From TrEMBL:
It holds the Pfam family RWD. Residues 9-111 form the RWD domain. It comes from the Eukaryota. Gene3D superfamilies: Ubiquitin Conjugating Enzyme. SUPFAM superfamilies: UBC-like. Residues 136-166 are annotated as: Disordered. InterPro entries: RWD_dom, RWDD4, UBQ-conjugating_enzyme/RWD. This is RWD domain-containing protein. Residues 154-165 have a biased composition (Basic and acidic residues).
Length: 187
């Protein structure tokens, strides 16, 4: 059972928000894990947050000691924890578990940019970890960045996640516009 009303309300909110989300795991009514990234993603990581009795007036305990994170360097783990603690300070006194998980999801690429990619292969019961400089998935990404003019036009016609066209889609080139209208006025 959660220690106070704030915790009970946050617990109910977390359960409803993450219902059916396979990345979220409730270890106890005051301890939660969230996997940032897909299964098999070499840059995925797991955050564990547990609430002390005085939470949210005091900071939650944040850990990256899960076995899932064994391939992540200590420096990267510490960097992620430092960034999360900055968010904790900003949100102290309010329910922040959801905010911390979402912050980590939004900043996953930034957090893991210096993490070497490990390929884990298992043969029977033996697991070997190898570091590779070039990963086939990164080659695919490079190709996507080089779009033709037609592809760029199609992309510009698409709307964003809110169903809105991108900023500036209907902007007018003021110089061309003025030179066209200006020549008509001179006649």
């Amino acid at each position: 059972m959660a220690a106070n009303e704030d915790q009970e309300m946050e617990l109910e909110a977390l359960r409803s928000i993450y219902e059916g989300d396979e990345c979220f795991k409730e270890l106890s009514p005051v301890s939660f894990q969230y996997r940032i990234g897909e299964n098999g993603d070499p840059k995925a990581f797991l955050i564990e947050i547990s609430w002390p009795e005085t939470y949210p007036q005091t900071a939650p305990n944040i850990s990256m000691n899960a076995f899932f994170n064994n391939t992540i360097s200590l420096a990267i783990k510490q960097s992620i924890l430092d960034k999360l603690m900055e968010e904790v300070e900003v949100n102290l006194g309010t329910a922040m578990t959801y905010t911390l998980f979402e912050y980590a999801k939004d900043n996953k690429e930034l957090f893991m940019e210096n993490q070497p990619v490990h390929i884990v292969t298992s043969v029977g019961n033996n697991i070997s970890i190898g570091t590779h400089e070039i990963v086939p998935s990164s080659k695919k990404r490079d190709k996507k960045e080089q779009l033709s003019k037609t592809q760029k036009r199609k992309l510009a016609d698409k709307t964003d996640h809110k169903g809105e066209l991108p900023r500036g889609w209907n902007w007018v080139d003021v110089i061309k516009h003025l030179s066209k209208t200006g020549s008509k006025d001179d006649e």
